[in-house]
User: Fold these one by one.
Assistant:
Number 1:
Amino acid sequence: MSDTGGVREVKSAARTVELLEVLAARGDRPVRLRELAEDLGVPRSSMYALLQTLIDRGWVRTDVTGSLYGIGIRALLTGTSYLDTDPHVRAVRPFLDEASDALGETIHLARLDGGDVVYLATRESHEYLRALSRVGRRLPAHVGALGKALLAERAPDALPLPEGPLERLTPNTHTDRASLAEDLARVRERGYAIDREEGVAGITGFGFALRYDTPAADAISCSVPTVRLTEEHERRIVAGMREIRDRIEAVAPRGTGSAPQWR
């Protein structure tokens, strides 16, 4: 067993979490027992027993044949509880509505999780042509405005990036650390991040770190189809998002009081 923070890892618990993460990452692509057993390096008999336990408890679902598996409804209920009880998400949500109404574009709130950002809230544009996303979406931090805004809050030698080449999602994605470092320097100087079709082709994003934590763990962004982005609209987006960021930072909790300080 591995050692984590001085406490020996519980193998069965780690296996359960790994299984749920695999199922969640597959989205609408169900998986068979054999694939799960091979991916996680677990005997089929052990994997089958674990799946049946989780099915009984609602964490995993199976089809009528009992041969395909997917994430269960209990995962949704737990994720919803996380969002509903997080004080920063509660504080930011009303401002996302304001930004969406004022700018007419898609607005996101995301949190840094290791080397990725995870979307915690989204307000979609009412325009026919718009950026689409969803709560729970996970993207490498180096590919978009949200992640770059948060990476820029950290020392250049302390970035939570994976080893080896950086993943490419579009032709504009930074895939080498030197190029990314130059961009992050510009983010620090400018005060916000710009993603010009680096994460999603056809979409430009503007990301703003929320500095109620040090270093910032959350960021907001505005995403707009590049074909609809004029210089005037870009200036309006930047000004509007700066104002929203300032107002959020003025009211969001800053780690004081009796509330738990999560890590």
Number 2:
Amino acid sequence: MENKRTCLYDKHVALGALMQPFAGFDMPIQYSSIIDEHNAVRTACGVFDVSHMGEAVITGPDAERYVNHIFTNDASAISAGQVLYGMMLYPDGGTVDDLLVYKMGDEEFFLVINAANTEKDIAWMRENADGFNVNIEDASARYGQIAVQGPDAEKVVEEVLGLECKELVFYTSKTMNVDGEALIISRTGYTGEDGFEIYCSEGLIIKFWDKLIESGRCKPCGLGCRDTLRFEVGLPLYGNELSKDISPVMAGLSMFCKLDKPEFIGKEAVAAQKANGVSRRVVGIELAEHAVPRHGYNVVADGKVIGVVTTGYQSISTHKSVCMALVDAAYGKLGTQVEVQIRKKTFAGTVVKKRFYDKHYKK
């Protein structure tokens, strides 16, 4: 089956991007280099095409109650214009997906889901809507999306795109009209830096992309550095640090599961895991030597395999060899000595916090 293309595909090719399949789309992995693009986001400004992400619109009299049923965080605790991060779970506590929920109003929510999971997620939402007066629309085809990220993002969005965004605080959004079209802009991102995500028609997205690139104030960035950036600040990637076999409790993300809510799918499982502990946990590991621990490599201790690397890099911002790994809980304490098997050698490592680099959000 042929891969899908985002509305910016021709723009990426024209810029000489390295294109590769990702989540069923042909996506840009890098333009200049991953290091160059990574550093641009950490020090100035970069723009990502994230039009492959999925969007669902939930409307109806029971919208809030329904979102609270399928989502771990508490949608009733926020007002219109606020955004929440959380998960959809299976009854056993495994993760269907992690997502953002935008409250547009009491009877309208905008959900942003992972590209690779869009069809599965929408099907899951529909399967679990019995008894709720709601409409679930897969709106993915209606939206293009770009993420403008980095310490200069606010200035660039205001001055280059002419979109007022200064007043937005972290994890808030607003709808505005541009060229007679509605767009959603939020102060959110997946890089650990300040930034904005913009959702609107494909035509407008192309226009914004062109303006940003022509300005010279915003570097085009591929999915390569999107991964190195999110990894350094300890943000999970579905399929690596969260999955149907990795619950939010195992991933260290149970703060996004509100057990004081009346109910949500998977609540009992999360409560039991928090009370009784879990057998495996996602931890950070720092290697003593320069070697690159990659996804899938074994973690060893006491002469046996005790886990597996979920994501690993030589951190671009800190130059340390670090990884996140799913390990037996007995080896999950900070300071525990472990080893990572890289090809035929093992390298000594220490369990550390998963955040290898500090976030710089504008609160």
